[in-house]
Amino acid sequence: MGLQPLEFSDCYLDSPWFRERIRAHEAELERTNKFIKELIKDGKNLIAATKTLSAAQRKFAHSLRDFKFEFIGDAETDDERCIDASLREFSNFLKNLEEQREIMALSVTETLIKPLEKFRKEQLGAVKEEKKKFDKETERNYSLIDKHLNLSAKKKDSHLQEADIQVEQNRQHFYELSLEYVCKLQEIQERKKFEFVEPMLSFFQGMFTFYHQGHELAKDFNHYKMELQINIQNTRNRFEGTRSEVEELMNKIRQNPKDHKRASQFTAEGYLYVQEKRPPPFGSSWVKHYCMYRKAAKKFTMIPFEHRSGGKLGDGEVFFLKECIRRHTDSIDRRFCFDVEAADRPGISLTMQAFSEEERKQWLEVLGGKEALFPSFNRAIIPRPEGSAQLDKMGFTILRKCIRAVETRGINDQGLYRVVGVSSKVQRLLSMLMDVKTCNEVDLENSVDWEVKTITSALKQYLRSLPEPLMTYELHGDFIVPAKSGSPESRVNAIHFLVHKLPEKNKEMLDILVKHLTNVSNHSKQNLMTVANLGVVFGPTLMRPQEETVAAIMDLKFQNIVVEILIENHEKIFRTPPDATLPEPGPLSAPPNAPPRQSKRQGQRTKRPVAVYNFCLELEDGDRPSLPKEDTPPSSLDSLSSPSPTTATALGHPGPDRNHLLTDGGSFGDWAPTAPSQARSSAVQWLNPQSPTTPSCSPAVTPPSPKLPPVPLSLPATVADKPPESIISRKARAVYPCEAEHSSELSFEIGAIFEDVQTSREPGWLEGTLNGKRGLIPQNYVKLL
């Protein structure tokens, strides 16, 4: 049972039970007071802990932002650029989240702590003051009654009457005070139900708003997260291919290191100990130097270097060789020594010590000594041994037979070209196909004797066995250059030009093969062999450097990109001549670096206003942010080589839609909070974050920046270069794909033709009609026709 009500009539009786009920009410208020006091203390501790957590999160974000991945080689792939930028994206996400957390922590003070302190001070404090008055008046009233009752009846009547009046007045004052106190006690018991709970509701509304903001941030981040997973999977796939190549090269060098020395500008180079003579009584010392010699100029360079002291590099010495003399063991107490005399230092000779007798003989031979028994250090590049496979009529027959069989029997087989056949069966099939007598007898299309994986492995083995790769050693470096840099369109144009520089037979066979690979990629939903996966498989098969080095293996990922470009643009590259008006690609005319392809449009991201934490807004159905589509079918991931929408995933892992990647141009840090005075209007914007004033299309390819739209090397000027008043009711063609994120926008692919294109009142946007639907188009995504 709860507290018993205090009846006003009991104030006049002031019975013991009335006093018990008053004490029960006072005890309850005291308990409430202590509870609120503890709650305020806990709330302040919560704010302090929140600030500590926020500081730790910010420090973590700062550490992420400051770290940068280094890459091996002279360029990164688009995937690697996105991975490199991911730490900054993570940092910006945390920074944004912590901004919201700090606002929530501030709101706790305003919405919870201060109202509770006010209630405790003004309401509970007032009751305490009333209690003091009531207790004091009780003591005074009953003391006066006791004193009055002790008056002698023999006193004068006038004196007794005066005493009676005084007691009666005091009793009336006491009753009034008692009535007010009882009223106050009951009022505060009822008031605390809303005066205390209302701040709690505001506090929890602030928490809900913070978590909703976190949900919105996570929803915006989800597209980037899916893109990053694709980037990571692509990089992992390339890593696996690169690792196997590196291990193979390492094993070759381990077995025969002499045959895999890198070609060098020096005739000989290596470590030698050089005797340094000192004045008596110090004698002499031997110091290790890295020595380099150019025979044509007779120039000898020595650089002191000591591995054990942390690899400290000393100052080098250069002299010109006059002669070299072998030292016999009876003339010096060390082995493997020889003397060299400098032409520019008459009368001074240096004694040097090699690591072994074999190395001494090699140095003597290079330096013109007497014991020239071994070949020169300056080894020419060892050509690959020619196999029996040739780029002849028989080769074209093998290629066509294998392709027909694959397209007839296994075009939908999962992991086509990635799943390898049994080595012995592959060799047997390839031998039969390359034998004129048995080639025609092999029926690959109808025979069950040969598995599809055996046929695909034989085809790849034939291409690898050619004396020279299909895309030639000569053009290898030229093909790699555009894959490392440039806009997507300039990459395609450069590869287009280079393909037409290939020998006719090479180009013809490449055409047949790439046409087949395009067909394979068109069935990627069944076989999971997307453009990127085919690039991983056929990059090392169609391209390889003449010299095997780790640096060359690091370029494997760019070979994959070249193959992706060929597959995605087969019709253009092989069916049309290259544009003669474009500059010839080459190492000296490499296009400028392009931003990562799978990125959101350059410029600022849609700003998310500051959440409002101290009032509630009911969401109307029309104002609710649209949720991500759950039933969108997974599409394969976009290749990184050109603006084609063809996509690629890792084997067995179909990727999500590639239309939402966020880069530095629009980082989470761009969501600047608004001023407190704008809080109410900001809250309404927050409930409906999409604004037609901010372009929300998410391209699969990086378009020009809305602020300063660049003109790609291979594209005409876009409408971004024309003043708005000049764009009046014309046609336009899309140069970048875009997916609408608002009902007023249009979705389109590259090449889409828009009718009745006009300027829009929205900055950076045009209005146009596509397939009968009219809507907004990002201005820098199209060019006028």
Automatic annotation (TrEMBL):
- Source organism per entry reads Bos indicus x Bos taurus (Hybrid cattle)
For this protein's source organism, the top of the classification is: Eukaryota, Metazoa, Chordata, Craniata, Vertebrata
Q: Where is the composition biased (Basic and acidic residues)?
A: 622-632
In Swiss-Prot or TrEMBL terms, this protein is called: Rho GTPase-activating protein 10
* Keyword terms, alphabetized: Cell membrane, Coiled coil, Cytoplasm, Endosome, GTPase activation, Membrane, SH3 domain
Bias class Pro residues marks the residues at 584-595
What cellular-component terms does GO give this entry? cytosol; endosome membrane; perinuclear region of cytoplasm; plasma membrane
Q: Does the keyword Disulfide bond apply?
A: no
Its primary localisation, in coarse terms, equals membrane
Cellular compartment(s): Cell membrane; Cytoplasm, Perinuclear region; Endosome membrane
- Residue ranges for the region (Disordered) are 576-607, 621-708
Q: What does this protein do?
A: GTPase-activating protein that catalyzes the conversion of active GTP-bound Rho GTPases to their inactive GDP-bound form, thus suppressing various Rho GTPase-mediated cellular processes. Also converts Cdc42 to an inactive GDP-bound state. Essential for PTKB2 regulation of cytoskeletal organization via Rho family GTPases. Inhibits PAK2 proteolytic fragment PAK-2p34 kinase activity and changes its localization from the nucleus to the perinuclear region. Stabilizes PAK-2p34 thereby increasing stimulation of cell death.
